[in-house]
Amino acid sequence: MTRRDAITVSALVAAGLALATGAAVASAQQVGPPLDAITDAYRSASGAWLSRLMPIARRTFITLAGIEIALSGLLYGLRRHALDDIAARFVLKFALLAALLAVAAALIVRQ
């Protein structure tokens, strides 16, 4: 193989690589819309089940909070704390539960 043949072969290989790279870039640019469609489908589907799940989650949270407040009242009553101490603990418990409900609702609405 002469030097001229070697240059010709390397030029053909370089041209083939350039064409292959161009084709790969063009196909990579076409990947975007299907992925966007999948993302949009996921967002719409999650919105559908999230709207059904939110009332169930709120009822569950309120039920569990009610059970906790009832048990706390029972324990505070059995331990015979002072009335002002019981009131302070209930206010603190209610504020904590309200803050947790607000944070949970804000996180769910964001998604």
Jot down its keywords:
single chain, 3 helices, rod-shaped, 0% strand, 111 residues, mainly alpha
Residue-averaged pLDDT: 75
Globally, the shape reads: rod-shaped
Task: List the domain count as a whole number.
Answer: 2
Based on CA atoms alone, the radius of gyration comes out at 33 Å
In percent terms, what proportion of residues is strand? under 5%
Give the terminus-to-terminus CA distance.
65 Å
Would you mind describing this structure in some detail?
By secondary structure, the protein is mainly alpha-helical. 93% of the residues lie in helices and 0% in strands. The protein is built from three helices and no strands. The longest helix is centred in the middle third of the chain and has 48 residues.
Fold topology:
Elements: H1 3-29, H2 32-79, H3 83-110
What's the short story on this structure?
The chain contains three helices and no strands.
